[in-house]
Amino acid sequence: MAKLSGKVAVITGGSSGIGLATARTFVDEGAHVFIMGRRQAELDKAREELGRSVTTVRGDVASLDDLDRLYATVKAEKGALDIVVANAGFVELATLAQATPEHFDRTFNVNARGTFFTVQKALPLLRSGGAIVLVSSAAHLKGIPVYTTYSASKAAMRSFARSWAAELKDRGIRVNTLSPGPIDTPIIDAQAKTKAEADAMRAEFARLLPLGRVGEASEMARAVLFLASSDSSFSTGIDLVADGGFSQV
Ligand code: NAP
Q: What residues flank ligand 1, with Cβ below 6 Å?
């Protein structure tokens, strides 16, 4: 029996990497997905790849107007919502000494503020029995030079999950965080100047991880499915760490 039969899900950043793998898994499990991203070409590719049960909405989670448009589309097409996966994220490397106010704002505007309003604006549509999954990062559990603002913004997401789990329990809505370790997606390339540099980063991550490899987006999709489905019916406010042992061993 499909785990998300008849469910309606919003996945921000659903056009690439972990979000796209999650969209594929959700559709295979019977859900209709609304995916949001800024680049129309990537959304079009994702829609073609998924083939069915998908609506694309172009937009930026840092824009409140775009989020309003996302949920207006959900309301018009489906009337209500069961699952929100706040997955869109931004990373830019800078040490404390290098970081500019603009760098700080870019990071927090997407990862912390964007997540906050992605979930707040979903509330009127969310049905009882719903699930919210925030895609944080295992970086929030470590002190990694150059990931200062990124890790802190992801720690904010972990904190949101605790507060919202308490605030939404009486509506029957569970809220959990997924904290991935290094996963082989385009976000690694976005942190490097060249392909060779990105490959060197992947190799260095693999060397650092107890499991000896970087993760796959499909592995994160299965973890999101667990948190979004009744398989995790007795979990709320947790942080599911899926990081090859990076922060735990
Ligand atoms: P990815 O392949 O680069 O995908 C990012 C997705 O988010 C894309 O669809 C992108 O589309 C969208 N996006 C980015 N900024 C956005 C914004 N402001 N508004 C709306 N959509 C936006 O990266 P990924 O690895 O799958 O990352 C997904 C999440 O996992 C992120 O939150 C990331 O921090 C987290 N994570 C990743 C790793 C890893 O190693 N891959 C590790 C830990 C945590 P557009 O660019 O077209 O907007």
A: 12-13, 15-19, 36-39, 42, 60-62, 87-91, 110, 114, 135, 137, 180, 182-183, 185-188
Ligand 1 centre and the CA of 110: distance in Å?
Answer: 10
Please report whether residue 200 resides in a domain.
Answer: no
Residue 176 falls within a domain, yes or no? Answer: yes
Annotated catalytic sites, by residue? 150
Kindly give the distance from the C-alpha atom of residue 207 to the centroid of ligand 1, in angstroms, as a whole number: 23
Q: Which domain holds residue 29?
A: 8-180+215-242
For residue 97, what are its two tokens? Answer: 């000494």
Taking the model in full, what pTM does it have? 0.98
Torsion of CA 211, 215, 219, 223, to 10 degrees: 80
Classify residue 146: in a domain, yes or no: yes
Check whether 1 has a pLDDT greater than 90: no
Within a domain: residue 65? yes
Give the model confidence (pLDDT) of 112-147 as tens digits: 999 999 999 999 999 999 999 999 999 999 999 999
Q: Output the residue whose Cα is nearest ligand 1's atom 7.
A: 13
| 185 torsion bin: left (phi>0), alpha (psi -120 to 50), beta (else) | beta
Which atom of ligand 1 has the smallest separation from the CA of 21?
A: 26
Query: How many domains does the chain divide into?
Result: 1
Q: Kindly write down the DSSP assignment for every residue of 96-110, as one continuous string.
A: TTT--HHHHHHHHII
Per-residue pLDDT at 217? 98
CATH number of the domain where residue 219 is located: 3.40.50.720
